[in-house]
Write a structure and sequence with these properties.
- By secondary structure, this protein is an alpha/beta fold.
- The protein contains 6 helices and 8 strands, in the order αβββαβαβαβαβαβ.
- 32% of the residues lie in helices and 16% in strands.
- The strands form 2 sheets. Strands 3-4-5-6-7-8 form a 6-stranded parallel beta sheet.
- The chain is globular, with a radius of gyration of 17 Å.
């Protein structure tokens, strides 16, 4: 997934513009723009795949590194015209480096009316481990650091607190830790006055646990439940 601004002039404009994209909110099962009209996500995954070990015994190999597409201004500049041609209004980015500068890409995307669903986890040690799940202060700090970096942009639609943490019935022991991540991230966003939503992405696994997981993560109050539940479909 990659993106940016189509014209150099647009870049300068984006950096000085005070206009903002419409805030997207959730009411029940639906998303709405500020004028009350429904918002429908039309998006793509936007990130070059990192290095993957092909012999992962779980069947869900994890990358060992990543390339931050939102820090690649040239790549964004190259890709934005194609995203606009496709009519994309949202991209999903799986891993970012909060120490890098993302202004050019994020501003160009905003200028094109494109929102971002941003994963907070990082490969290897920066996510909830399905084999030994935990929600730690170190992981929380990592997530919040990324939120701090991206909170200045008007086009962050949602922060994703986990990706395919549960891939089989035995992994459902991870669910309370996913929910704890959603709770703490939501509390932090509220404290910062952010309207960004909170999401989780699941693999398109057996319906026996997939539906139960979705219902569990979405249950209870808004303060502890996810706003968006995504399915990674491999068919």
């Amino acid at each position: 997934m990659k993106f940016l601004k189509a014209f150099a002039a647009a870049a300068a404009l984006a950096s000085t513009s005070v206009s903002a994209l419409s805030k997207i909110t959730r009411a029940g099962k639906y998303l709405y723009q500020e004028d009350g009209t429904r918002f429908y996500i039309k998006g793509i995954a936007y990130q070059e795949q990192g290095t993957v070990t092909t012999n992962d015994p779980t069947g869900f190999p994890e990358p060992t590194d990543y390339i931050d597409p939102l820090a690649d201004a040239a790549g964004c500049n190259r890709d934005l015209p194609y995203l606009k041609q496709l009519g994309v209004n949202t991209i999903r980015v799986y891993s970012v480096n909060s120490a890098l500068n993302h202004d050019s890409c994020m501003q160009a995307l905003s200028g094109a009316g494109i929102y971002v669903i941003l994963d907070l986890a990082l490969p290897v040690n920066g996510s909830i481990d399905r084999a030994s799940p935990a929600w730690t202060n170190n992981l929380l700090d990592l997530y919040l650091g990324t939120i701090d970096t991206f909170s200045k942009y008007d086009n962050v639609l949602a922060y994703n607190v986990g990706n395919e943490v549960v891939t089989a019935p035995a992994d459902t022991i991870s669910a309370p830790f996913i929910k704890a991540a959603a709770r703490d991230v939501k509390a932090y966003l509220k404290a910062k006055g952010s309207s960004a939503l909170v999401s989780f992405s699941s693999t398109d696994g057996d319906a026996g646990w997939r539906l139960a997981l979705a219902e569990y993560l979405a249950c209870d109050t808004d303060a502890t439940s996810i706003d968006l539940y995504g399915l990674n479909v491999y068919r």
